[in-house]
Specification:
The protein contains 13 helices and 51 strands. With about 800 residues, it is α+β, with helices and mostly antiparallel strands. Helix 6 runs parallel beside helix 8 and helix 10 packs parallel to helix 11. InterPro entries: DUF5110, Gal_mutarotase_sf_dom, GH, Glyco_hydro_31_AS, Glyco_hydro_31_C, Glyco_hydro_31_N_dom, Glyco_hydro_31_TIM, Glyco_hydro_b. This is Glycoside hydrolase family 31 protein. Pfam families: DUF5110, Gal_mutarotas_2, Glyco_hydro_31_2nd, Glyco_hydro_31_3rd.
Length: about 800
Amino acid sequence: MIEENNYMVNDLAAKGKQEFYPGPVLTCVQHGNDFRFTCANGVQLSLHVITDKILRFRYATEVGFAADFSYAVPVDSVRQDPEFLEFREKPDHYRITTDRLICTIAKETLYVRVLDRSGNVLTADEKGFHWEHDDDTGNDIVKMSKQVQSGVHYYGLGDKPDNMNLRGKRFTNWGTDTYGYTKGSDPLYKNIPFYLELQQKIAHGIFFDNTFKASFDFAAERADVTSFWAQGGEMNYYFIYGPSLLEVTEEYTRLTCPPELPPMWALGYHQCKWSYFPESNFKAIAQGFRDRKIPCDALYLDIDYMDGYRCFTWSPTHFPDPKKMVRELAADGFKTVVIIDPGIKIDPAYSVYTEGLANDYFCHRADGPLMRGSVWPGLCNFPDFTRPAVREWWAGLFKGLIGEDGVKGVWNDMNEPAVFERGTFPDDVRFDYDGHSASHKKAHNIYGMQMARATAEGVKRFSYPDRPFTITRSTYAGGQRYSSGWTGDNIASWEHLWLANIQCQRLSISGFSFIGSDVGGFIDTPDGELYSRWMALAAFHPFFRTHSSGDHGEQEPWSFGEATTAIARRFIELRYRLLPYMYTTFWQYVSKGTPMLRPLTFLDQTDTETYLRMAEFGLGDHLLVCPITQAGADGRWMYLPKGDWYYYWTDEPKAGGAEVWASAPLDRIPLFVQAGAVLPMYPLMQYVGEKKVEELTLHVYFKNGTQASVVYDDGGEGYGYEQGQRTIRRFTVTGTDQGLTLSQEIEGDYQPSFTTYQVVLHGLPFPLTAVMADGGAVEVTAIAAEAGVALPGVVIGVAFEKLTLS
C-alpha cells in the first residue's frame, strides 16, 4: 500500500510538470478590431488589431483572462485604427488582413503566422503557445516558441552586455544589482522585454509585456527555434511590423510612449562621484571646472550628503546650509542633482519613516509583517510604489529638496530593488500593483520603474515651470517616460568602454534613448588614455556623465595630467557646440519615437555588411561615430554606410559602402558627417544659458544631389512648446558640379535669441564666385575650420528662404 501511494504521488508530480497546449478552435467572434478564438479545452486567444502594423496577442488557459492592465502601455497612449481590416474563415484557418499584414490562425492548433502583403512569412509558431503549471506558486509558466526564419538576426532587449546581434544567445529579465558586471553577465539592472528581428531584409519586433521573470532564447538551445517564456502572468505579446528596423523601434516607442523634452542643460556635461563632501569639497569641484574653462552643467551628491543615509535629509555636518550652497552654485551655472534610494531607515525619530508607517505605505510580507532589509542606512522598510497613494506621498516628499532647497534633479539608485543580505526582496512580499494585488515575483521587474515614476511626478511638481530631470538605474519597458538612465556599476577597462558603446546603442533601439555610461568606469581607476577615449565616446551619448567610486582615486577631467585635461576639454566643448543638433535629435525621439543612437544595421538594413558590425553608430540623422576601444591605437578601420561622407576633423570626402581607415590620435574620435547635412552649432558656453546665443552656426556639407535636415528650437526650458512656442526649421541642400542651393522652411512662431546664421560651407567642388540670399548679394568671408584651414562662409538673417551659391 505504501509503495502504491508513493507511485501515485510520483505520478501526480510527473503530470504536474507536463506541458499543455491549446485544443482545436471551436469559435471565433469579432468585435470591431478584436477577435476572440475559443478552443475545445477552454484556451482562448484574444487578437487585437491595434494598427495596420501592430497586432496584440493575449492567451488565456482554462481559467480565462485576468484584468487587462499594463505599466508599459498607458491606456491613453495614441492609437490609430487600421485603415483596412478584413476577416475571413477558410477551411483550415482564419485570416485577418490589414493594409500591411496578413495573419492566419490555424483551426487545429491555434498556430499563428504573420506575413507581409507580399506573402513573405515574418513569423510563424513552432510549438506556439503552451504552458506548464507551477504547483509551488499556482502560476502558469507561459511559453511561446517560433520558427527561426532563414538568415535571421536579433537585436534589442535593453541593457544586455553582449554582442549587438543576439542570435545564438539566451537571456533573462530579472533586475539585478550586478556590481562589476562583464561581457555576457546576465541579468542586469533593466528589464525591457522587446526585441527586433531582421530576416530577408525585412524587420519586425516582439514586445512580450509580462513583468514576471522572463527568458528569451534566440536560437541558442535549438538552432531552428526562438522562444520566450515567463514564470507567471499571461502570454501577452505585440507583433510590430517595420518593415525597417528604425520603424519598428519608432512604433514600439510610441506604443510605450516617449518622454517629455528634457531641459537643455540635462544634455550638457555632468560630474559625479561617490561621494563629494563636505560642502567645501563640492564647491571646490565646481570651481575646478570654471577655473579650467571646462564646460559643466550638473554636479551630483551621492549618499554621503544625507544625515545618516536618511533620504530627503541633509547632513548637518557636511552641508550645514544646503539652500545657500545650491543657490551659490546655481549662480555660477551649476545644477545640483541628489541621489534618493528606496530604502527608508527604520528610525522612530525620522519623519519620512513615521509618515510611511502611520499610513501603511511600506511593503508587507505575505503574513503581514513589513518587509525589512539592509541597505546603506541599515535596516529599512520599502515603499510600495505600485500603490497610487504611495506614489503621491513620495512625490510630495520632494517639496524640500526641489521646491525649497533649489535642487534641480534626482538620481534613483538601488531600485532593482537591491537588498544587501539577499540581493532583492523575498518572493512573498506583497504589492498593490495599482489594484491588481501581486507578489514580488510579479512586481520585482517594475519596482524601479514605479519608483522613477513617483520621483518624476515629484520633481516635475516642484520644478514647474522649469522641466524636471531624473535618472534611474532600474526600469521596465515604458520607463523612458519617467527618467534618463545609465548602464550601472561598470569597470575602468577597455572591455567596459566597448560595452558602453554596445549597451547605449541597444537601450536606444529598445525605446530608452536618454542613456549613458559612467565615463572612465565606476570601479577602479582609468589611465589618461582610457579616460580620453571614453570621454570621446560619451560626448556622443545622450546622457554624458563621469561617475566613479571614491575608493579608487580622483576622476575629474583634470585628474590625469594636462594633456588629458586638454583632450577632455576638447570633447566637452564639442558636445556643447553640438547641443542644438543633440536637442533636435531628442525632439525627433520625443515626437516620433526615433532612437537617438542608431546601430549600423539601422542605417542600412539592405546592406548585409552591417548585420554583424557593432562599433559604428549613428547619432541623429547625419553623424556617424566609431569609438577607439583598444589601447595604443592611432585610428581604426570602420565601415561607412552607402552614400557620401566627410571626415569631420579634416573634411576629407569618403565614399560609403566600404571599409575606410579613420586616423584618430588621442584628441580625435572617428567621426563622419553625411554629405548634404546641415549641422547646427552653438557658440561655446561654460554652461547652458551662460550667454545669449546671438548667432547660430550652420555647417553645410556639399552633396551632389539633395539632402534634408531639420533644426528644432523652443528655448530649451519650460512648457511653452506645448502651446506652440517652438520652431522647426527644415533645410534642403541641393548640389551640382556648378552650384549649391540651401533652402529653408520655418514652422512655428517661436522667436529664438539668435537673429543671424553663420553658414560655413564644406566640400564645395567649384570656385565660389557669387552668393545670393533671396535674390540679394551676400559677402563671403573666410571661417577657421576644425581642420585648421579657412572655409568660405556667409552671414545671413534667420528668416531667409533660399541661399544660392555659384
